[in-house]
Amino acid sequence: MFKNKKFFIIALMLAASIPLSVSASWFWGNSANQKNISTITNQTAELSDAGKTIADAKYKIWEAGFEKKNVDSVIANADTFWFTVPELNYLFASVGATVKKPLLSDFKLTDDNNILSVSATFKKFIQGKISFTTQIANDNNKIKLNISKARFFGIPVPSAWFSNPLNKGIDEYLAFLYKDSRYQGFSFSNENGIIKIRPEFK
Which of 31, 104, 188, 191 fits 17 for a cystine, CB–CB 3.0-4.6 Å? Predict the structure, then answer.
């Protein structure tokens, strides 16, 4: 069901991160540089060329670990998996343009006081314009989406319509981590439009 560029599934998971404190360990350079980068990417809907370069570089690291199911790469880069809201919107558009049969299109992530909402046109399992808000739950160290305010073409629908297939997709996507004996779970953060996921290992 979920083939090619499964970044889409995991980015939905990132978009749903619950508000926690952001870790002091960041991806790009020292603290001063990171503050500048974060400010730029959070305050603008469109990324600059430099911002796009940074987003592409971060996705390459994500891809080397999660897309290629390389646990050692995930471990080595455990503190690097953070994205801003504009970066996620940009990556959905740019990566999605390279996929022959994408899961979704017209993705839009919005952030209102650390409450994140997703809208997109889904092309698999349910076809059409979908929107929802969601939070992440920890289910025996497995990530589960708790979806609410689900709408299909603007009409309220049962949240299970979306949560069941998306959670199945996340389980499939992360099975390579869940099966690794070193895996200990995840921590999340979402603050000021900066969304971070950190896998934990022994």
Answer: 188
Domain count, the chain: 1
Long-range contacts of 148-157 (CB under 8 A, 24+ apart): 149/117, 152/126, 152/128, 153/128, 153/129, 154/129
Q: Is residue 98 part of a domain?
A: yes
Q: Is residue 2 part of a domain?
A: no
Residues (pLDDT < 50) of the chain are 1-4, 17-44
For residues 149 and 115, the answer to whether their CB atoms sit within 8 Å is no
Look up the pTM and report it.
0.76
**Does residue 1 sit within a domain?**
no
Short-list 59, 40, 60, CA closest to 49: 40
Residues 71 and 187 sit within 8 Å (Cβ to Cβ): no
Give a yes or no: residue 147 inside a domain: yes
Cα-based distances in Å from 35 to 41, 42, 189: 10, 10, 16
DSSP state letters, 158-192: -THHHHHHHHHHHHHHTHHHHTSTTEEEEEEEEET
What pLDDT is recorded for position 120? 87
**Residue 164: which residues within 8 A CB-CB, separation 6 or more?**
none
Dist. CA 121–CA 128, nearest whole Å: 5
Residues 108/89, Cβ–Cβ less than 8 Å: yes
